[in-house]
Amino acid sequence: MCILFFQAFWHLIRFDFSEADFPVLYRQVRDCPVTPRSTTSPSAGRICYAVDLACIWYWKQVLCLQRSAATASLLRKHGLPAQLVLGAKQMPFRAHAWVEMEDRVVNDKPYMREIYEVLERC
């Protein structure tokens, strides 16, 4: 779990610097390949838990885009086909990002698609 925590923390740092340039962040997530899964690969739940833990110890507030980009990339690096999902609602205007695997939200509340209209998946 310790290695997974540090991987998650590193991904948070990486996407913290990319967050100011959305096209760069988007390309980094979109182009991150799903590596072959091994028998020692952690589960999606363990990866999401490691990212949540890393968010607690991060030195500043982690927003949903940074957290979800880190989660999606880390899941893909461990052989899980995750998608970063971007959504918005009109009244009151809000935007949000989360991660899905096989049409199931894995790093947020399961009803995100009921609240937000999906704008993009990568």
Largest sheet: 4 strands, antiparallel
Helix run count: 5
Task: Return the string of H and E elements.
Answer: HHHHEEEHE
How many angstroms does the end-to-end distance come to?
Answer: 27 Å
- Low-confidence runs: none
Describe the protein.
The structure is a single chain. The chain has 122 residues and is of the alpha+beta class. The protein has one domain. It has five helices and four strands. It has a four-stranded antiparallel β-sheet. Helix 1 crosses helix 3 and helix 1 (2-18) packs across helix 4. It is globular, with a radius of gyration of 14 Å.
Quick summary:
This protein has about 120 residues and is α+β, with helices and mostly antiparallel strands. It is built from 5 helices and 4 strands, in the order ααααβββαβ.
Architecture blueprint of SSEs:
Blueprint: H1 2-18, H2 22-30, H3 44-57, H4 64-77, E1 82-89, E2 94-101, E3 104-105, H5 112-115, E4 117-121
Antiparallel strand pairs: 1-2, 1-4, 2-3
List keywords for this structure.
122 residues, alpha+beta, 4-stranded antiparallel beta sheet
